Amino acid sequence: MALGSWRTGEQGAAAARRRVSALGLDPGLVGQAGPLLASADEAVLRVVDAQYGGILADAASVLVVCRQWTRRAGAVTAGGTTVDVRLSRAIPRWAVTALHPARPGPAVSSLPPAARKVLDDSRIGLPPAARADVRSGHIHTSVLEAMLRLADTYRMNLSVIRSGHPLDVFGTSRPSDHPRGLAFDVWQINGRSVVDSATPRRLIESFMRDAAAVGSYNVGGPELPSGAGAGQFFSDPTHHDHVHVGFRS
């Protein structure tokens, strides 16, 4: 928030460093803010969702999904991004060590039909970086078609598709499916947050089973579906707050 929101007269890197320092954080993080520190007279940032990209005993990745509104010469522009925030264990609290904003790439002039349908489907909530991922043409058709089939049954809000996610499965050297355009994460199903203990388990289990049924080989969530064995499903602390849906191709 300190990096992405400011009033008139408080724009620019120097002012951002002062805001970050006032929070007891490293002002050097300002140099990693990327699109959050846009050239604008004013800005307001809202965090849509924050989920784990990975959690270990002494390090973590938190994927912060943001929307941002900037004002230049009276004109307001809506935007935003997803930032992979890296943390390390420290006392009295975990310390932010690095920021990795999403880099979706430019939009292509011609998209496959499935991509256009995903962008137009009101039942598929796409934050700014995820929408830019689809527009970039780098998301596999299998992933797009799976989203559309799931949207026949569910309203879902996605957090991450391709950009803004760690390149490797956190804490390993194994490439993640996300940067290859072969996975997406869902943080909210039918208006219910996956992380909320009040969300019915049957809803999350149903979504996970249906994600497997539309072709995902690797469905992760807060718990294994009842009766599920090893194979398509997994659960771990990283996925207590979202459902991961991955594809081979």
In short:
This protein has helices at about 15-20, 115-120, 130-135, 140-150, 200-215, and strands spanning about 40-55, 60-70, 75-90, 95-100, 125, 155-160, 185-190, 190-195, 220, 235, 245. With about 250 residues, it is an alpha+beta fold.
CATH level-1 class of the largest domain: Alpha Beta
Q: What is the domain tally?
A: 2
Major beta-sheet overview: 7 strands, mixed
Q: How many H/I helical runs? A: 5
Mean pLDDT: 96
What is the fold's blueprint, element by element?
Layout: H1 13-22, E1 42-55, E2 59-72, E3 75-88, E4 95-101, H2 113-120, E5 124-125, H3 128-136, H4 141-151, E6 156-160, E7 183-189, E8 192-193, H5 201-213, E9 218-221, E10 233-235, E11 243-246
Parallel strand pairs: 5-6, 9-10
Antiparallel strand pairs: 1-2, 2-3, 3-4, 6-7, 7-8, 7-11, 9-11
Helix pairs in contact: 2-4
Describe the structure.
The protein has 249 residues and is α+β, with helices and mostly antiparallel strands. It folds into two domains: 13-101, Roll (Nuclear Transport Factor 2, Chain: A), CATH 3.10.450; 113-246, Muramoyl-pentapeptide Carboxypeptidase, domain 2 (2-Layer Sandwich). 20% of the residues lie in helices and 31% in strands. The strands form two sheets. Strands 5, 6, 7, 8, 9, 10 and 11 form a seven-stranded mixed beta sheet that branches. The protein has a four-stranded antiparallel beta sheet with strand order 1-2-3-4. Strand 1 (42-55) and strand 2 (59-72) form a beta hairpin. The model has no long low-confidence stretch (mean pLDDT 96).
